[in-house]
Amino acid sequence: MPTPSMEDYIEQIYLLIESKGYARVSDIADALSVHPSSVTKMVKKLDKDEYLNYEKYRGLILTAKGKKIGKRLVYRHDLLEQFLEIIGVDKENIYDDVEGIEHHLSWNSIDRIGDLVQYFEADKKREQALKELREKQLSKE
Ligand SMILES: [Mn+2]
């Protein structure tokens, strides 16, 4: 299993390749706010663990294993954003909160949160009812 830090890299590389078609060391460094030398170091490790193939002057591509996990990591991030949005977390907190929790939940918990999101999506009245409950609580404070 990749470590939290490896997960961040695989996730960003997957997103970059999805949106631009390639992922350069400098783009990855920008996306993660880290030094390019840290990226090179991690990319070599990810290459060794067969998540990607890295060639110094030709760039990098994800292996089938890297793509599969990248896709799951992006799904997990998006799902958690959706979840926090449904439960009424303020927009400005959502991204950072997801970055903070995403690596620390089991796939079991992720799947159950997935059920809950589906439950709310199936009937918009449910989200509305939760919102009303929240507003009632707020008016009591
Ligand atoms: Mn993320």
TrEMBL record:
Its main location: cytoplasm. Mn(2+) 2 binds at residues 11, 77, 99, 102. GO terms for molecular function: DNA binding; DNA-binding transcription factor activity; manganese ion binding; protein dimerization activity. Residues 1-63 form the HTH dtxR-type domain. Mn(2+) 1 binds at residues 8, 99, 102-103. DNA binding is strongly activated by Mn(2+). SUPFAM superfamilies: Iron-dependent repressor protein, dimerization domain, Winged helix' DNA-binding domain. It holds the Pfam family Fe_dep_repr_C. GO terms for biological process: intracellular manganese ion homeostasis. The keyword Manganese applies. This is HTH-type transcriptional regulator MntR.
